Amino acid sequence: MANFITRNIPNTLTCGNLVSGCIATVMALGGDARYALIWIIIGAVFDFFDGMSARLFGVSSPIGKELDSLADDVTFGVAPSAIVFAQLSVMEYPTVLASVEPYIPYCAFLIAAFSALRLAKFNLDTRQTTSFIGMPTPANALFWGSLLVSQPTLIESSAWMIPAILLLVVLTSLLLVSELPMFALKFKQWGWRGNELRYSFIALSGVVIALFGVIGGMWIVITLYFLTSVVADIVSRTHTPVDIEK
Prior knowledge:
Helix 3 packs antiparallel against helix 4 and helix 5 (about 135-150) packs across helix 8 (about 195-240). It contains eight helices and two strands, in the order H-H-H-H-E-H-H-H-E-H. It is an all-alpha fold.
């Protein structure tokens, strides 16, 4: 009995992630972006602990891996898409876009499509055991939820913010499947050496969250995560020794 319970703890947590994503989607389509974001955050907590429990109990399985990807696409793909869809549905459009206004909000679901593609690639990519290639789906979802919830004045300041949002949808979708190396907060050991980037990022994120709160600061943290990864990649390429044939 104990083995049965232990074996099913990770999948139960994954289902918690999936249900959280479903609730977040309903909240978003109902116009409550703040609660949608809260449920995305709850889903991210479930997502963190399902992987941890699978490693802790040594019960990883192909079914769990597929279930995890399905749950992640709902919580971190469909739910943020729904938040963006709802936002684009209520904004004032410039005259030049009036003829396509009813169709533009559906562009938000590019996020869900590219999130699914990113998750499928992740399952097959052996390079992403200790770091990421491309933006992780939870980070992308938290970025969109936090940005739209915390910056309503900016988002609704001009009808021309609609093209800006659409451009950002395309850029973040492409970033999900990009080849940009991005560090992960996975620690092999807890010392400073080898973890300088991780500890520095955690400290900086703590300052941002303290200043702006979780809801208002998350999109800033994700932006810093992206910029830090870009800088780290440039530095690593610059300091990579080049073999010169004699």
